[in-house]
Structures are given as structure tokens and as C-alpha cells.
Fold Solute carrier family 3 member 2 N-terminal domain-containing protein.
Amino acid sequence: MTGAGGADADEGADGLMEPPAAAEKNGTVKLKVLEEDEEQTKFTGLNKEELLRVAGSPGWVRTRWALLLVFWIGWLGMLVGAVLIILRAPVCRELPPTDWWNEGPLLQIRNLQAFMMMMTPSLSLSGLEQKVSTLSGLKLKGLVIGPIHAAPADDPMNLEFEEISPEFGNLEQFKRLLQTAHRKGETRSPWCSTELLNRFTMKLLMRRISMCLQSALVFWLSEGVDGIQLPGVEDLARMVPSLWTDIRAIIQNGTDKVLIGVTETSSAETVSDVLSSTGVDLLLSGVLSASDQTERAHSVQLLYSNHSQTKLAWSLEDLSRDLVKVNQLLLMTLPGTPVFIGGDGIGLKDDVRQTKLRQTLFKEMVLRKRSKCHAVFPLRLQGERGERSFFQSISELRGKERSLLFGDFSLLFNSSSSLAYLRVWDQSTRFLAAFNWAAEEVELQLSGAGLPHHAAVVRSTNTSALPEESSVDLRKLRLGPGQAALVRFPHDG
């Protein structure tokens, strides 16, 4: 029993020990315990105290100071570099003081009725008011109108400076014209009195006219005109100096009113003396009337050398239609204020020519087949538009380019029939104007310091020969008869 019981007991014991053996073989339980231990020991970062302790270590302190030093050295280096660039850069030239009459061309309307016939059936001031928008679109800065005051023929004692002649309109129409011009923001309207004072040399007449004239100046300036034009200023300043002093005080009293003088002389030396002695803001003369271009170049050079170009004014009365564009380019590129006389010089006759051309072509359409006229009509009209559009393009260009507005003038070449000069301002684009008044082609060989070999055509009176934006060789610049061109090239730095 005992042995059997012992065996049974051993077997029972073995039977009771099987579950622990089975538990030891259960690897899942052991693996779970191991995974939990690993998760408990995973790195989760440093807390605040640990971070402060690490950041305060000598290694990190030295690193931070090194990075901070590199940052400030780089910042100071960039600052020093910027200062050096500014100091070494060429200083921009200070713009000269200018007035509104230096910023664009002026249009002088001597014969109001003849001028209005070009633009509108109305021959009065009201008709001119309707065309202010058209004139402003041509970038004109001022209209010099007159004389339009009442002036009885051969009766100087009864001149009415403060009354408008009924054939031109009335004072209310003139006021509306001024308001319209000022509202456009571009066009000013100086009042013009011509052929009044330079015809009278007697002291009595001078005294009588001086009293009326001073009152008239105050009256018209109070009505809103932007300036006065007077002829024979050298005679007036010499014969009645006190009157001339009063006239200048009335007009040039610190306001933006312009005093325009007119002299009949064409001598550059005399014009220079008159400009110095009278003190007018602008002086119109006949210095450009010379047909010889050498004399013309001498006149321009003399006046430019002795006076500020803000005091110079240029005008031409050459009505040759073949030279309209050439004259436009000449006046617009000379140093000073261009003054165009009448509507012919700015292409306002285009409308009249267009109307007449349409009438002629309409008659041709009646006499010929309609198809043939349709082929001719657009081409002929297109050829007639050039003068006004050319003037407008030159006027817009002059208003945008500093070299043309108040740039330095340098004469490059001149002969009896050819002329070339350069306009330069600081670092702006340079412009070179070349003209040929001869009856045959001419080749200009232009060279010198600062002149490149090639330049781009900006404006040309003959786009067939010299297309705009084409490149030309300044050493062999060819101009056809009666042709002019304006070319440009950049500042070479």
C-alpha cells in the first residue's frame, strides 16, 4: 500500500506539477511583461530642469556665443557694404528750377479767325473753347492769344486794353475759355498784346499808354490769365524805364505768371543783350530765321552759353510744308521753350486737308468706278495724317525725357545745310538730333567722347529711309534731302 500509495502520490504530485510547467511554456505572458518594461524605459525627452542643466553646459554656451558673433559680424558687414555702395555711387545731378512754361511747347495764335478756320466753323473765342481738349491732347502747355482787345485803326489814344473786340467775342466767352483751359490742367493762357508799344516813340503817347497798360495788366491778371506777352521790350525798357520796372513788378511778383518779350532783331548778340537788360522770362526773336545752318548753330551756341536755357525761347515762321516735321523736331529738341506760331506748325491743317481730300475723292468716286477709289482713299488719307501725329509724339517724348527737357547741349556738327547736336542729362538716356536741309543726301560722320558707334532711331521724318527703333551707324549717318532724325543711346556708366 505504502509503495503503491507512494507511487500514486508521486504520480499525483507529477499530475499536480503539470500546470506550472504549462505556465512556464506560455511565452505570451513573458513577452507582455518584457514589452511593458521596454515602454517604461523609452526616452520621452528632457524636462525643464534637465534642459536648463544641459543648456548651461560650457559647450553649448560657447556654441551660442559663436553663432551670435557670426550673426552680428554678417549684419555689420552688410551694413558697411551698403554704405560703401551708396558712397561710391555717382551723385544724381540736382534738377534745375523750372516753371510751367519750360515743361512743354507754347502755341501762339496771332490771327484768331484764321486759326479757327482750321478747326471749327466758329471764328470766336467760344469756338476756341470747344477745341481746348484737342490742343491739350497735343501736350501744349500754353496758348498765347491775341491781340484780341479793341484797337481802333490809327487811333492810339483810344486803345481799349480791357475790352475784347466784338469780332472775337466778349469777356464772358474769354473767361469760359480760361476756365476750360485750367480745368484741363495742362494748357495755360497768357494774354498777348502785339504791335502796340513799339510803334510809338513820342513821350506823350508813351505816358498815356503806360497808364492804360498798367491798369490793363492788373485787370487781365485778375481775370485769370497766366502771363503777358509784349513786343518791343528793349525800346520800352530803354525809353520808359520806370514803366518797365512797374510792369515787371506787376507780373513777376513771385507768382507763376510769365512775362514774354518779343524783339524784331535776329542778331544773336543783340538778342543776348536784350534778354539780359530786360529781365523777361522768355524772349522771342528771329535768331533761327537764318537759312545758313552755320549761322543758326552759332546763334544757338551763343545764347545757350550766356543764358540759362529756362530763359530761351525758339520759334520759326517757315511755312514750307516740306519742312514742317523738320522744324517741329528742331524746336522740340533745342534747349529752351519751343513756341509754335499758328496751326500750320503743329499740323492743325490736317483737318482742312482731310476735308478737302474727302471732297476731291468723293468727286472722283462719281466719275470713276467705286472700287478704284476705295483702293486710293485710305492710302491718301493716311499720308496726310503725319504732321499732327508726329508733333504729338515728339511733344510726349520731350515731356518724359530729362535730356530733352533740360539736358546739356553739345554741338557735334554743322555746315551750311546740315546740323547735329547732342542732349545729355546726368545718367539719363542721351539723344542726338541730326538735320539735313540740303537738296541732296548727306552723310554725317559723327564721333567723339561718349558717342557709341550705333544708336537707335526714336523719331524720323522719313520712316521709309530710317524706320523707328532701327539701328544706325553714327559714323555713317545718312540723311536724305530735307530729312531729320532723332536717335538715342544709353548712358555708358
